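Fold this complex.
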Amino acid sequence: MLDLTLLGTGGGMPMPNRFLASLLINYKGNKILLDCGEGTQVSMRICSTGFKSVDLILITHTHGDHLNGLLGLLSTIGNSDRVDPLTIIGPTGIVDAINGFKILVPYLPYDINVIEIKENEDFIYKFKEVEICALYVSHSSPCVAYSFYLPRRRKFLREKAEELNIPTKYWKSLHQGNPLNLNGNVINPEMVLGENRGGIKFSYVTDTRPLNSIKDFILNSQLLFCEGTYESLDKLDKALKNFHMTFEEAATLALKGNCEELILTHFSPSILNPGDYINNAQNIFSNSYIGKDHQSIMLSFNEK
Amino acid sequence: MLDLTLLGTGGGMPMPNRFLASLLINYKGNKILLDCGEGTQVSMRICSTGFKSVDLILITHTHGDHLNGLLGLLSTIGNSDRVDPLTIIGPTGIVDAINGFKILVPYLPYDINVIEIKENEDFIYKFKEVEICALYVSHSSPCVAYSFYLPRRRKFLREKAEELNIPTKYWKSLHQGNPLNLNGNVINPEMVLGENRGGIKFSYVTDTRPLNSIKDFILNSQLLFCEGTYESLDKLDKALKNFHMTFEEAATLALKGNCEELILTHFSPSILNPGDYINNAQNIFSNSYIGKDHQSIMLSFNEK
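Structure:
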């Protein structure tokens, strides 16, 4: 199970009525922060997320509306008594950016480990059981999309275990895939495990034009967070010029990617009420929704 | 006349219910920003101050709650089409800090001129007609207080000018202090000007313990903005440890400095409602008030 909190849904610049687009992912109390514009730490306070247990920060790109809040957040995490190292992952430019921050915040009680994602190389990072993939997209500076996959264990078939007279104290280890030597008989986990089951997949795509490669990257996501910087195709010229998407383009991406649900985010400051334009997305992909600041979403395994 | 806008009144860290302490000073449409924590630009938007006409930024010290918002604000000022150079003034450390920002925001359409105030040297800076002085105070990092003085012109005595048969077209130049040669007779401005008149003085003191030197620095201010990080003398141990003041100490400073009015600011996040404790200040200095985010104050010349 993954708990997600949409810390903000704004793009471009910090505004009075909307926090900048950012997502907090909570997996068993360990947290991943995705993007951190100015004010993200304030939104974290409103959502009472805490700071100490942020173990990983993912940055889509080094534009200020996705990065500047890190300057203060690094200090705030330090003030939360964190001493464990923190990992920051981002595209080309992230090492230089974090080095810049380190000049401004030279004394932190924890180490920062920065990983710069290479272009033209597959990127997979394991956070606990969660597999994180990154894909370079098309923006005015190096920018990546992220997808997250939490695999699901195969079902433990207790009736099979009972048939084989396996004492219950060995069940957990077998479920974890470890063979068992029971009085000279080797019990293979395969003998007591059900079929493979799909895990939880969700994706986060922002600050890019729609690309075919994104469609493959987000394929079959239970949930797609996608930028809808502009509310309608009428603004396509701006979307093209600034390397962003319209609501229609985001919905088309969700459709092509066979996603189950789309949450739009990263709204231009010019959009006062994104809900006024949701039809532009729903006419293409009915399960389209407007992201709301401080919205919580719980993702569970789909099948039984 | 000076128009002041209290952009925020919080100290320590950005919080949901209070912007970080910052002041915007508007003199004839030219603006001075004093301190810039995370979120200051959002408060500027709420107050519709505009960004392009910020000509001068004064920083009290380089702690994050007074500085971090500059990272995004410099870009936002750039996006406002400003091309005129911008001056940033601050204490020891400001040059390094701004150099750090320049790494993170390398492309701005205007030049930044940084002035680092030297310790043990008088500092006076002239912004239009406003004289700005700085004083090193006592904090855990180099920190300065600022005072502002707008002199008032002497009154033009029109009855004297009429007695001397000076045509009205020369009055303005005489009022500005220029002598006049009228048909061979030299008219000295002293002949048509009234007595010296007091100008507008206000001061801004934050992140320091009270000092005797501050009392002299703020002397006779029409208005003193002073930090009241802690609400009562019960917190004196914290005030001493963290180099801050209590409400009582700020009020005592206003009293000793013969100020006309005190506005408290830079409240600790632990103070939910500073107004609950205003008596702690008013018992010492009756013209004490709690600063409010987005409050506007107009300072006019006192005497006629």
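The longest helix of chain A spans residues 94-104.
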